Amino acid sequence: MTTILIQGATLPDGSRTDLAIRDGVFVASGDATGATVIDAAGLQALPGLVDLHTHLREPGFEQSETVLTGSRAAAAGGFTAVHAMANTSPVADTAGVVEQVASLGHQHGYVTVRPIGAVTIGLAGERLAEIGAMARSRAAVRVFSDDGKCVHDALLMRRALEYVKTFDGVVAQHAQEPRLTEGAQMNEGALASELGLTGWPAVAEESIIARDVLLADAVGARLHVCHVSTAGSVDVVRWAKARGIAVTAEVTPHHLLLTEDTARSYDARFKVNPPLRRDEDVAALRAALADGTIDIVATDHAPHPVESKESAWAEASFGMVGLESALSVVQTAMVDTGLIGWSDVARVLSSAPAAIGRLEGYATPFELGAPAHVTLVDPAARSTFGVDHLRGRSVNSPYLGLELPGRVIATVHAGVPTVLDGALRDPEEVARG
Amino acid sequence: MRHLLSTRDLTRDEAIGILDVAEDMADVARRAVPKLPTLQGRTVANLFFEDSTRTRLSFEAAAKRLSADVITLSAKGSSVSKGEGLKDTAQTIAAMGVDAVVIRHGASGAARTLADGGWIDAAIVNAGDGTHEHPTQGLLDAYTMRKARHGDASRGRDLDGLRVTIVGDILHSRVARSNLWLLSALGAEVTLVAPATLLPTGVETWPATVRHDLDDALAEKPDVVMMLRIQAERMNAAFFPNEREYAREWGLDDARFARLPADTMVMHPGPMIRGLEIAASAADAANSLVLDQVTNGVSIRMAVLYLVLSSGPNARGGAA
Q: Is-contact A116 A84, C-beta < 8 A?
């Protein structure tokens, strides 16, 4: 295994230090003889980033993304672990599928791939999937989600919360009341009315979150709310936390930066579920992430082939890729605006999502003996985000043409460099370790 | 004019310009041979992804009176019904060498997507996209109102102070949207009347007065009453209880029509459902402009095709 010496990096707390890595863990600098030296002067060191919400598309939709291409996109974005959503084909609702996905991730080595198990069989919202089998499988699944679909049946949601608790897992809910969003295309409001696009009311999200926090309270279970997108949802989560309910919430980078105004072009790159909202919502989401009401940033990286977006808005697929741009978007929306510092970035993009997903090795970053997951970013770099920044299989990014700050210079996953000098390393090198 | 995609982005002067050209086109229709050689050798493709007889025929008639060649593609029985997407259909038609594409599509924004997609060079005319806009309908309605008010002295004039009441399913109506933007650009005062379920969210930000009670609205004696078609399937989606209740509350029935001054302009974009949103007495009255709307539609569409194909990059010999 590679021995690495990172010289003069700035840690999230602002202190400067050398970081030595050998045999996959942090070691004392003196133990790093013969190391590959990385000059980290002026670079910000972060613990390896953890995404709780990634669509890797394999098995079934390999024309959009595979475990390998998605892992590479993740590493390029500074991630060392991703949680792969269950809406594949076949759906990740059995031990066999989740073990296969986890093992592909392990084989490629760019990131730790943690499969998310479906809550219900085939995401159909009717019968519980084999949650126990997935939890006890080699993939050791702890996050369960029907993401893309809402577990809307109240009784089934209650049972899921209770049953998942048995395995120390968490239900990650895609909060979308299905009847209130039939045919919905974009945020409900004056703009949707003008554009003639069916509105997606905020209440469709907020009513499910309100119900679910009450259910979680009633049965004493953990609840995680995916991609919170409205100011009203923030209010509900804030209220629930004040009551002591075990709820955590995520926000996507795109909901921190973009608004519904992008729909005016009918450019389907901006079509996403939940939809981009108003300025007021963006402001509320930023404030909630800063004050801890929202616990984490998760990408909802959702690759789609070109033809799924080159069409009339209503006919296009929902979703945007986000792994490669996440850190830059968080920097521009949260750090450069002075709302949070780099230690908060380390929390919302690494330790907190790892804790929610029960992913070990992220609780004490940079400590001697801890697994060596580290990301070096140059916060002073600026560039126009282009297709050349994208490393996955799909190019449906909403940021193309936008100037964004920050550049990932190096990513190290379990002691193995996946990005060096700002360039992704080859699959063979990474797989060798 | 490169394309006509919406009335939202037409200025007052641009709109008056189109209406004035339509006056010239209407004059042509009154000649012994109602045909101009203007677009000889040019090809207009009617791309109708959604069923429509009236609009398609109107565009066909308009193109033919300007001596253009017309290709018509209707969704039913075509490659579109076999799953071909907008891009491929458009490129296929474009590869046959067309100068203008008239597109009707069920998805809002489809015309704009076609214009911005970089797939074809042709001029795009929106003939109705989802619940977004139907700009030539808005233009023909404005033309009809201006003609009824100002007659032969219409040229160069706007609709300053004209009071227009639009009644019915505003929520799903592209006609209402195109009318609203255009009429307000032309200085008319628009009132929208509908149950709250059939009004779009944010309607209070639109340049219109909003009412729920039709009798109150009609008591103000508007100059124009425009009734919109109500689609039966809306009942199933709980927008209103049933046809009878709708007709009682929001239909222009005999009694309501009788209370209107005899010079009130009664309009309807068609197809009408008599007995539901409009009584036969109103539809067939002397002050009903329903058939004028159809006649004027051809003039407006001639004007629009002429304008997009005779100026700017779409002009013959112009930049590609």
A: yes
The mean of the pLDDT values for chain B is 93
Q: What is the pLDDT of residues A203-230, one digit of tens each?
A: 999 999 999 999 999 999 999 999 999 9
User: pLDDT for B276-291, tens place per residue?
Assistant: 999 999 999 999 999 9
Does A314 contact chain B (CB < 8 Å)? yes
Please list, residue by residue across B274-302, b when 16 or more beta carbons sit within 10 angstroms of its beta carbon and e when fewer do.
eebbbbeebbebebbbbebbbebbbbbbb
For residue B183, pLDDT beyond 60: yes
Percentage above 90 pLDDT, chain A: 98
**pLDDT-wise least confident of A1-10, A82-91, A163-172, B136-145:** A1-10
Interatomic CA distance for residues B41 and A249, integer angstroms: 62
Q: Residue B55 — φ and ψ, nearest 5°?
A: -65, -40
Are the Cβ atoms of B85 and A311 closer than 8 angstroms? yes
Whole-angstrom Cα distance, residue A188 to residue B282? 36
Q: What is the ipTM of this complex?
A: 0.93
Q: Record the pTM.
A: 0.95
Domains and CATH numbers, chain A: 47-355+380-403 (3.20.20.140)
CA dist A374 and A363 (Å) reads 13
The nearest alpha carbon in chain A to B202 belongs to A190
Per mean pLDDT, which range of A37-46, A300-309, B234-243 is the poorest?
Answer: B234-243
Q: Is A300 a catalytic residue?
A: yes
Enumerate domains of chain B plus CATH numbers: 12-134+296-314 (3.40.50.1370), 135-293 (3.40.50.1370)
**What is the distance between the alpha carbons of residues A328 and B78, in angstroms, rounded to a whole number?**
47
Q: Which residues of A touch B86 (CB under 8 A)?
A: 311-312, 315
A202 contacts on B by Cβ (under 8 Å): none
Catalytic residue among A261, A300, A336, A378: A300
Helix/strand/coil for A411: strand
